[in-house]
Design brief:
Radius of gyration: 15 Å
Helix content: over 70%
Distance between the termini: 17 Å
Largest sheet: none
Structural class: mainly alpha
Length: about 60
């Protein structure tokens, strides 16, 4: 049973890390300009940092 929980925790950690990094990359790849581009970059950046924080918390829980 412990192996199943560890596997699920690892999967959730990996998913949060990939989503966080993807959002950060998307913040730099926006094709919009002006205020709308800045709003989109802030939103993607916030989601990216949130994903990285969640993945670090899950990694600490796994250790």
């Amino acid at each position: 049973m412990n192996g199943i929980l560890s596997g699920l925790l690892f999967g959730a950690t990996l998913l949060a890390l990939v989503l966080g990094l993807t959002c950060i990359v998307m913040a730099f790849l926006t094709g919009k300009t002006g205020a709308e581009a800045m709003r989109e970059r802030i939103e993607y950046g916030f989601m990216g940092v949130s994903g990285l924080v969640v993945s670090s918390l899950l990694a600490c829980a796994a250790a």
